[in-house]
Request: fold
Amino acid sequence: MSDVLVLVEQVDGEVKKVTLELLTLARTLGTPAAVWAGPGFTPEAKARLAEYGAEKIYVAASGDLVDHVVAPKAELLAKLVTEKSAAGVLIAATAEGKEIAWLAIKTDSGVITDAVGVGEGFVADQSIFGGGINVHSRVRKGTPIIAVRPNSTAPVPSAGAGAEEEVTVALSDAAKAARVVERVKQEKGARPELTEAAIVVSGGRGVGSAENFAVIEELADALGAAVGASRAATDAGWYPHQFQVGQTGKTVSPQLYIAAGISGAIQHRAGMQTAKTIVAINKDPEAPIFELADYGVVGDLHQVVPQLTEEIKKRK
Ligand code: FAD
Reply:
């Protein structure tokens, strides 16, 4: 079976969950082959990739791959697609991943972005119009390059050989045109990363102000959860945009999603509707979020949420 290349997403050498999801998908399509771009490949990373089915791991350790924006990784993938006669490429549909996917057109192939699943024959599923319509598409030219949204597949371990192969790539001058001059470490804090969290507590316009988001944060901290926000809340400047959940924000798929003061607009649903259990707290019994929720509390979040937080703290 031909290689299915999976571009590894990692932070400080730690393989991100989305890569494990892509490897899980790749196993159904061909021989999973992880592609590590940049320095910092560790035995731990190797073990993690093999644990989730990587039969091969192509390691391109050159610093140039991360010192320049996007294009070098696309050139690396293009080289591997040709040299290994890969059956397809899976990339995380993050901001960077989607750009890499588009640039990988240099392999003269079709690209599909924002897939939520990939089936036999590299048929990609996309959920459009805020989840209202499902589209199944297939690339008809070249090697399919598919960017898959994080959290759309459950990662399942299945041991692979993890055979390591060193790769070098001669980058074009064009690929080195944009250089990374500084990296600003994102405040990680004690909370889990939004797209990887098992529990997410999100606040919307109903929260009322930036200060009031403390109520949401306290519940999140009691549960060991990440904090999310609706676009109404981020647009109002109450919470940073990087925490926006929805069509134009992050897609989350936690075990538990608590939506407080969020109406449940279709664009918000697009980012959280695959959560296993959804709890809505809203003072309007007619709010559309209740159509989606497994459990609903009709009430003022400023009363309900602190009580919930207290109760959870007591039980710990
Ligand atoms: P509202 O719709 O105003 O709802 C507030 C809710 O809070 C109401 O249901 C109200 O009953 C309740 N409430 C008020 N006070 C309280 C209280 N004290 N206690 C309990 N409940 C209370 N939105 C996103 O979230 N994410 C996206 O990525 C996104 N992308 C978009 C992309 C496009 C192209 C467009 C057009 C829109 C997008 N939106 C997105 C916006 C979306 O349409 C909604 O406007 C937005 O989700 C509304 O946010 P909200 O539910 O917080 O606010």
In short: The radius of gyration is 21 Å. Residues 204-206, 230-233, 244-249, 261-263, 265, 267-268, 271, 281-284, 287, 300-302 surround flavin-adenine dinucleotide (CB under 6 Å). The first strand starts at residue 3 and ends at 7.
